[in-house]
Specification:
about 290 residues, Phosphorylase Kinase, domain 1, Aminoglycoside 3'-phosphotransferase, Chain: A, domain 2, 2 domains, 5-stranded antiparallel sheet, 3-stranded antiparallel sheet, globular
């Protein structure tokens, strides 16, 4: 079907080698030749996410210091496939849920990337009810914490979450966010961060959502170096970022557990990534209180 779509809408690319790619959540991806990727939506909301990426990522990509999957061609709905799809730049590397970042120097790489991204967004930038918003929106999400019943960090994580809820909310202008920085959405080469992918959730809002990546992606010891380089996060923003890291870790653990149990939509590599996030978060908080 992908070959037929290429022949129908982008015939100049139709004879390039086409290879399956393992991974993906809302979209299925194929590698096309050496430098391109084909992405087709496979969940209900994925077409809208792909449209967001097609519209806004080319606007931002030129100022970003890491490779990104910039959409180069648009595939329109047709009788062959009823949804929008895209041909994007291939980003070389291994996803971090399969090959975690081990080089603590990636802290500076990630910080410079987010410094470049976190600029004031225009009035028509997309909003996302699940990203960039006040953490109070998730105050009633206590059932997620059942995933930590009996875990050695259970009490410490609850304390981090409550402090994040109590922190002052973001009162600056809405900034551009990637909004979905977790291990499956970045790629790694030689132990360090080498690219950022999947911008479908990109939106405007509180940068604390993205700053949670200091614990989600970086090895122990990386968070302090990250915030030293990023420079723009006050204490309240760092506290909210810790709360976002808790939320994202619980999401990774839940989806990862489903994968371990063989349930639909599960990703077994995400569970250890979620627990590693909590380990790094608690370690950082403990060290900062000494």
């Amino acid at each position: 079907m992908v070959r037929a779509l290429l022949r129908d809408q982008h015939p100049d690319l139709a004879d390039l080698e086409l290879r399956d790619v393992d991974g993906g959540w809302g979209a299925q991806m194929w590698r096309l030749g050496d430098d391109l990727a084909v992405r087709l939506p496979r969940t209900e909301d994925a077409p809208d996410l792909i449209r967001t990426e097609q519209k806004w990522l080319p606007v931002l990509a030129e100022r970003l210091p890491l490779p990104t999957p910039v959409p180069l061609r648009v595939g329109e709905p047709s009788s062959l496939f009823g949804h929008v799809w895209t041909i994007a730049r291939w980003v070389e590397g291994d996803p971090a849920d399969q090959s975690p970042i081990t080089d603590v120097g990636a802290a500076e790489v990630l910080a410079e990337f987010l410094r470049a991204l976190h600029q004031e967004a225009p009035a028509d930038a997309p909003l996302n009810p699940m990203r960039g918003v006040p953490l109070a929106e998730f105050r009633r999400s206590g059932e997620w914490f059942a995933l930590l019943d009996g875990h050695p960090h259970e009490d410490a994580v609850h304390e981090i979450w409550e402090k994040a809820l109590a922190a002052p909310v973001w009162d600056g202008p809405p900034l551009w966010l990637h909004a979905d920085l977790h291990p499956a959405n970045v790629v790694v080469r030689d132990g360090t961060l080498a690219g950022v992918v999947d911008f479908g959730d990109m939106c405007a809002g509180d940068p604390a959502t993205d700053l949670s990546a200091a614990w989600i992606l970086l090895p122990i010891g990386g968070a302090s170096r990250f915030f030293d380089t990023y420079e723009r996060a006050d204490d309240a923003t760092v506290t909210r970022a810790r709360g976002w890291a808790v939320l994202r870790a619980l999401g990774l653990i839940g989806i990862g557990r489903n994968g371990r149990l063989g349930l639909p939509g599960g990703k077994p590599t995400w569970e250890p990534a979620g627990y590693a996030t909590l380990d790094r978060l608690v370690s950082h908080v403990t060290a900062s209180h000494r």
